[in-house]
Design goal:
Blueprint lengths: L2 E5 L2 E4 L4 E8 L8 E6 L6 E6 L6 E3 L7 E6 L4 E6 L8 E8 L16 E4 L3 E6 L1
Parallel strand pairs: 2-11
Antiparallel strand pairs: 1-3, 3-8, 4-5, 4-9, 5-6, 7-8, 9-10, 9-11
Length: 129
């Protein structure tokens, strides 16, 4: 079992930056792909960014390309979401997610929720205009 806890959320102004962190306990993240999702009020949860087990592949939603970056620190069992040039429409609850064990599939990553087995409780990010 993997427990995920997000930190770093809060209030930012449009054009500003925030960095979210997600810490894992219980199991290592080293053998898993990782992702960030978000859910805005009244909307379904959507994919934001993902990173493969090896870190060599990342994917991003079109809405955040060039602004948001995912990275991982396997030694610290952490995954980060750097958010720059924030917009009011980025306001949402942000969730980190971890896949199941991937074995040798080091380059696999997905935008599908069903690919991820473990989820954090979510953290609020609010961007004011």
């Amino acid at each position: 079992q993997v427990q995920l806890v997000e930190t770093g959320g809060g209030l930012a102004q449009a054009g500003g930056s925030l960095r979210l962190s997600c810490a894992a306990s219980g199991r290592t993240l080293r053998t898993r792909a990782l992702g960030w999702f978000r859910q805005a009020p009244g909307k379904e949860r959507e994919f934001v960014v993902g990173i493969s087990r090896s870190g060599e592949n990342t994917i991003s939603a079109e809405s955040v390309k060039g602004r948001f970056t995912i990275s991982r620190d396997n030694a610290k069992n952490l995954v980060y979401l750097q958010m720059n040039s924030l917009k009011p429409e980025d306001t949402a609850i942000y969730y980190c997610a971890a896949s199941g064990l991937l074995g040798y599939e080091s380059s696999v990553v997905s935008s599908s929720e069903s690919f991820y087995d473990f989820w954090g409780q979510g953290i609020q990010v609010t961007v004011s205009s």
